[in-house]
Amino acid sequence: MSIKVRYFASLKEALGRSEEHLEFSGLASVGDVWDRANPNKALPDNSLAAVNMDYVELNDPVKDGDEVAFFPPVTGG
User: Fold this and answer.
1) How many domains does the chain have?
2) Rounded CA separation 38/75 (Å)
3) Which residue range(s) make up the domain with 33?
4) CB atoms near residue 69 (< 10 Å)
5) Residue 21: inside a domain, yes or no?
6) Is residue 29 part of a domain?
7) Residue 4 pLDDT > 70
8) 5 vs 74, which has greater pLDDT?
9) Alpha carbon distance 55, 57 (integer Å)
10) How far is C-alpha 27 from the chain's CA centre?
């Protein structure tokens, strides 16, 4: 299965890339996508994830053709 992964704001800066395409075999979760794309890097606490522009939890499944996006923690003021 092919997944498009996108990174925003400080995650994009820290990782040095804004997007990539990953190939998976079998079932995968949003958390699996992060782990595969960023081995040995923990997703920062309170980060948000979305699949096809809908916010999701890290254990939610992904399927072929999905776009998974990661957003850093947001603060307001």
Assistant:
1) 1
2) 24
3) 2-71
4) 21
5) yes
6) yes
7) yes
8) 5
9) 7
10) 15
d(CA 27, CA 63): 7
Give a yes or no: residue 76 inside a domain: no
Cα separation, 2 vs 28, whole angstroms: 11
Q: What tokens does 40 get?
A: 């040995």
pLDDT digits (tens, 9 = 90+) for 14-64: 999 999 999 988 778 999 999 999 999 999 999 999 999 999 999 999 999
Tell whether 26 is covered by a domain.
yes
Which 3-state string (H, E, C) describes the chain? CEEEEEECHHHHHHHCCCEEEEECCCCEEHHHHHHHHCCCCCCCCCCEEEECCEEECCCCEECCCCEEEEECCCCCC
Cβ 38 vs Cβ 47: under 8 Å? no
Q: Could you tell me the pLDDT band of residue 76, with boundaries at 50, 70 and 90? A: low
Task: Copy the structure tokens of residue 55.
Answer: 């916010």
